[in-house]
Amino acid sequence: MGAGKTTIGKKLARRIGYTFYDIDKAFEHKYKTSVDLFFHKYGEDVFRKLEHELLVSTFDLENTIISTGGGTPCFLNGMNLINQHGTSVYIQLSPESIYHRLTAAKKRRPLVAKKSEEELRQFINQKLKEREHFYNKAQIIISGISARVDDIIQAIRLNKKD
Which pTM does this prediction carry? Predict the structure, then answer.
């Protein structure tokens, strides 16, 4: 959350002439509710199962940049499947950078909107601790602080040569 997946993904897709697909937006469109409301109403297990189905449905797409939710790679073998079917990119940020991005964002995210400063810091640290093991399996890891589309394109080109 706040790493820039959607922003960078859209710019990258435009730059290379690909389609952009956001799994969270697709989920909200398909189920006619926000991810946050669905998550709170039906629970994480149901959400993760349906989110995973959307992820798997993207594997046949070509010339598409896919933005996942922050938890997508961490459940139901998500990261391994992503790596088998495409090129994964982890936009890495420090907890402090994520904190500043979330607090400075114009649009408040429902999952963190009511958290105090300390609760938000704890939430960020906890999520990174739980998820970074999965994120670090990405084929490409870039710094989110100075992430530029040209850098990502170059990293993908180098990754394809391996």
Answer: 0.89
Of 37, 65, 30, 32, the closest CA to residue 51 belongs to 30
Query: Among candidates 15, 123, 16, 3, which has minimal Cα distance to 67?
Result: 3
Q: Which two tokens stand for residue 40?
A: 């709170």
Question: Exposure pattern of 80-100 as b/e (b: 16+ CB <10 Å)?
Answer: ebbeeeeebbbbbbebebbbe
- Predicted pLDDT of residue 36: 87
Q: What gap in Å lies between CA 53 and CA 57, rounded to an integer?
A: 6
Q: Convert the pLDDT of each residue in 45-101 to its tens digit.
A: 999 999 999 999 999 999 999 999 999 999 999 999 999 999 999 999 999 999 998
Chosen CATH of 5-161 out of 3.40.50.300, 3.30.300.20, 1.10.3660.10, 3.50.50.60: 3.40.50.300
Residue 110: pLDDT band by 50, 70, 90 thresholds? low
Domain ranges of the chain: 5-161
Spatial distance between the Cα atoms of 78 and 71, rounded to a whole number of angstroms = 9
Residue keyed to tokens 């500043």: 100
